Amino acid sequence: MKIEENSQTKSNENEKSEKSKKSANGTVDPKDKIQQEELSEEDKALQEELELYVHRLKESNESLYKPALEALRTQIKSSTTSMTSVPKPLKFLRPHYDTLKNLYEKMPTEETKNLLADIISILAMTIDSESHKTNGEALKFRLIGSKVESIGSWGHEYVRHISGEIATEFQSTAELDDDYKAKLLNLVEEIIPYNMRHNAEAEACDLLIEIERLDLLDKYIDNEDLCQKVCLYLRSVVPFVPDPDNTNLLKTIMSIFLKYDKLTEAIRVAMQLQDIEAIQEIFDKAEKDPSIQKQIAYMIGRQQIILEIENSDLLDISSNSHLNTHFLTLARELDIMEPKTPDDIYKSHLEAPNRLYSTSVDSARYNLASSFNKDLGMFSATGSLGLILLWDVDGGLAQIDKYLYSKEDNIKAGALLACGIVNSGVRNDCDPALALLADYVTNSSNTIQIGAILGLGLAYAGSNRADLISLLTPVLFEKASIEVIGVTALACGLIAVGSGNSEVTSNIIQVLIEKSDVDVKDYFARFLPFALGLCILGKQNSSEAIIEALEVIQNQQFKTMAKTIVEVCAYAATGNVLKIQSLLHICSNSKSEDGGDDQSGSSAEQSTTSSTSSSSRKSSSYSKSNSSDSNSSSSEFNIQQAIATIGIGLIAMSEDISCEMAFRTFGHLLRYGDSMVKRSVPLALALTSISNPKLNLLETLSKFSHDSDSEVACNAIFAMGLIGAGTNNARLATMLRQLAQYHVKEPNCLFMVRLAQGLTHLGKGTLTLSPFHSDRQLLLPTALAGLLVVLISLIDPKYTILKAHYLIYFLVPAIQPRMLITFDEQLNPLPVPVRVGQAVDVVGQAGKPKTITGFQTHTTPVLLSIGERAELATEEYTPLTPILEGFVILRKNPNYVS
Fold first, then answer.
1. Does residue 289 come out as left (phi exceeding 0), alpha (psi in the -120 to 50 range) or beta?
2. Which of the two ends of the chain, N or C, has the fewest CB atoms closer than 10 A to its terminal CB?
3. How far is CA 805 from the centre of its chain?
4. How far is CA 756 from CA 346, 383, 724, 753, 765, in A?
5. Measured distance CA(649)–CA(640) in Å, rounded
6. Which distant-in-sequence residues (6+ apart) come within 8 Å of 889 by Cβ?
7. What angle is formed at CA 790 by the lines to CA 483 and CA 810, rounded to 5 degrees?
């Protein structure tokens, strides 16, 4: 008999039963009838028969005990039930539960005791645990029962109940003795195979996670189908599990994939773990199948991981040297090779005539992306050549070379930056970027120096190369401007992103110790602690040592701000709820408008002075020429709040539920936060939805793009560009055209509108800025780092992005094609039909459910948007990786019949 029961129905049945059978002392009288309503003749007969068996157990004739117990077992096991009702034998026996427990001790033999223990165990499942204090009794009597039959013979609901009680025992504060623990583990090893056989893989995994014995899982997975289901479920659990349990989960998934030689799946998990040794080991293991090794090389290249690879063909693939060629192939296929002018993107002919007013206000800003100012405008314009020639190392450098001989420092600096941009994400044994830029790192011109340093940072982002860090480190200790030092720190952080490089961190901390209070008030000084954060991006607890080292900073406000930056970066994209709560606490510790402290009374707040009442005055307090010591102290605390706000979006960005919760939270911050918090909320919103223009976000940002505070408006407009980056979203394009007319007299806002329009049409809709790929399973650290630099800069847009335009080029590491291109095993392009549709979550679903919905059939190469998934529409080929994104190798299906 299988006992299948809905828990809600069970409690309802309990309530009805309890109400109908309460005696004067408030306990259930077993002599009362089970139900007040009339029973059928068949039910009455069953009830009387069961009561007779219980009565026989009370008699003194011991020879009747065993037959009565056997009869009770038979009745319970043979009864049938629906999913919404308790089996009738258990329903009728429920009033006798206490009686049977009392009779247990009176049983004369071990055999009869064990048989009765089985019945009490199954009955305990149906009893209200609070009123009868039966917690753990189902498990207790199961352990002392007969064990003649397997646990599964009593049904799925009983197994689930026992599993819950086992988990509770393991999580109890009391230390379990070894014998009891061994008994529980024996029971677990009986439950797991039962669950695996009955499509309850999720429950088996949950039990092993609760008792922290995931190592037992491997031996119960005996086929590939089960392997996929279990690993899919475990991956879905990872975002909700704290560190280090999430790491243990990923390691378990990797070992299961390796057991079945699913190397392309295992390499993704290894990349998620950022375990270079495991990645190298899996790559080497794939040598026996060259096609699989090529596919892994493509995946390594997408994640920009550097391995020791001797094969030159594989090295070229993993170095992304093919990227530009294949991207141009896609562009030709889509017929988008024809260049566009700015007016084509702005759709100037649709704007009202008063647009022309902007040219008289600031002609330079209109002409260059209607955009950059004069001097640094030349820097940025020349640097933009690198974007046009992105990833084309050989052809691109030849076209940029002539600008390196310009007598104008800004043009020369832009050419150096362009050299770095062209090499971004592409590895080359000749190191052309290093050869061209190294000599300019110590140039006497600040502009040229910044161009060279920034170019190196972008070209070698994520490489963690010691020679580059040694080249840049002396600049940190030179008597250079804080702008040069800040950019150098960012370049070092970008090169060492996520590596925890001790040389970079120790040097930057040394600089922070040596710099005076005056220096740390500069906007570029914030990049020093931010570079520390980039070094430990996503490393969680690794931040503790650095945070401790920051205690030596004398300036209290700068120290607090620096700690917040480092902590936020360390928990990037982890979904850590506790960290989000602590950041919300920082945001709530704001100064009241009348200048008094609020009731939260944090130490950071008590040391600040009052904020001015108008948002325009608040923003003016950032001007170095007008700020007093008290105002600068207050501004540093406000900066900390701004970073905390961005940090909420940063931590929540990896998981959809966290993003929804963050969206609600940001609504409160917009209503009640200070001006600095309001300025940062659009940036945090953008971070939760990069290149994914959700309607509710666009409407919220559109509202704040008309804000009276120009800096809030600027950030909201730029955030709209980030959310729609590379999507060609028609609704967003219309919003931005309207904003161009609305802000026609505001050069700064108009500049942001033009940038947002450019981002929306990024690569004519073929590129993305999203740091996530591989069905959102993997995060590209260099992409996230680049996005963060720009967002941190936008905390004070007037003094950073709107003046130092070159900071926008930190977006370059995040720019990636959103395409699917298929090859045969000889790496020749292979056009095949694919279905592209919205991804469907199939975790825990039985059978082989559809993984996409609302699909359309296309022929590769195709574009994939955020939230879309592709699958082959033909059985002629099988993909070497289950996730069809980027470059995918197809193998001829030997069983295919035309």
1. beta
2. C
3. 30
4. 10, 18, 8, 5, 13
5. 15
6. 291, 294, 295, 298, 822, 823, 824, 825, 827, 879, 880, 881
7. 80
- 886, pLDDT greater than 90: yes
Name the DSSP class of 96.
G
Instruction: Kindly list the distances between the CA atom of residue 816 and the CA atoms of 323, 332, 783, in Å, as whole numbers in the listed order.
Output: 10, 17, 9
One-character DSSP codes across 291-359: HHHHHHHHHHHHTT-------HHHHHHHTTTTHHHHHHHHHHHTT--S---HHHHHTGGGS-GGGGHHH
Look at residues 653, 573, 556 and name the one whose alpha carbon lies nearest to residue 607. 556
Tell me: the pLDDT tens digits for 575-597? Answer: 888 999 999 999 887 543 333 33
C-alpha 246/C-alpha 251 separation (Å) is 9
Beta-bridged to residue 823, according to DSSP, are 829, 889
> Is 90 exceeded by the pLDDT of residue 469?
yes
Residues 678-716 pLDDT 10s: 999 999 999 999 999 999 999 999 999 998 889 999 999
Using CA atoms, how far apart are residues 735 and 257, in angstroms rounded to an integer? 47
What is the DSSP secondary structure assignment for residue 691, as one 8-state letter? Answer: T
Tell me, what's the pLDDT at 519? 52
Cut 0.90: pTM above it = no
Contact in structure between 188 and 160 (CB atoms under 8 Å): no
- pLDDT grade, residue 358 (50/70/90)? very low
Question: Cβ of 727: how many Cβ atoms within 10 Å?
Answer: 22
> For the segment 214-265, what is each residue's pLDDT rounded down to a tens digit?
888 888 888 888 899 999 999 999 988 887 888 999 999 999 999 999 999 9
Token pair, residue 509, equals 């901390």
- The enclosing H or E element of 609 equals none
Q: Return the bridge partners of 858, or none.
A: 834
The two three-digit tokens of residue 167, written as one number:
């988990």
Angle at 655 between CA 651 and CA 659, to 5 degrees: 70
Close Cβ partners of 205 (under 8 Å, ≥ 6 residues apart): 217, 230, 233, 234, 237
pLDDT in tens, 759-788: 999 999 999 999 999 999 999 999 999 999
Q: Which residues of 508-518 are buried (b: 16+ CB within 10 A; e: fewer)?
A: bbebbeebeee
Q: For residue 517, what pLDDT is reported? A: 64
Mean pLDDT over the full length of the chain:
83
How far is the C-alpha of 482 from the C-alpha of 211, rounded, in Å?
53
Sequence-separated (6 or more) residues with CB below 8 Å from residue 361? 745, 747
Spell out the residues 6+ positions from residue 875 whose beta carbon is closer than 8 angstroms to its own: 893, 896
Output the six-digit token pair for 584: 């919300």
The domain limits of the chain are 7-235, 374-450, 461-570, 819-892
Element (H, E) at 593: none
Which residue is associated with the tokens 């809030």?
712
Closest CA to 639 of 500, 800, 481: 800
Which residue's structure tokens are 């993107």? 345
Q: Which residues pair with 890 in a beta bridge?
A: 879
Question: What are the counts of helices (DSSP H) followed by strands (DSSP E) for the chain?
Answer: 44, 11
Banded pLDDT at 57 (limits 50, 70, 90): confident
Q: What is the DSSP string of 847-869?
A: S---SEEEEEEEESSEE--TTEE
With beta carbons less than 8 A apart as the criterion, state whether 165 and 138 touch: yes
Question: Three-state SS across 245-295?
Answer: HHHHHHHHHHHHHHHCCCHHHHHHHHHHHCCHHHHHHHHHHHHHCHHHHHH
Largest interatomic CA distance in the chain: 114
What pLDDT was estimated at residue 845? Answer: 81
Beta strand 833-839 with 778-779 is unpaired
- The answer to whether the CB of 787 falls within 8 A of the CB of 811 is yes
DSSP, res 741? H
Angle at 248 between CA 247 and CA 253, to 5 degrees: 95
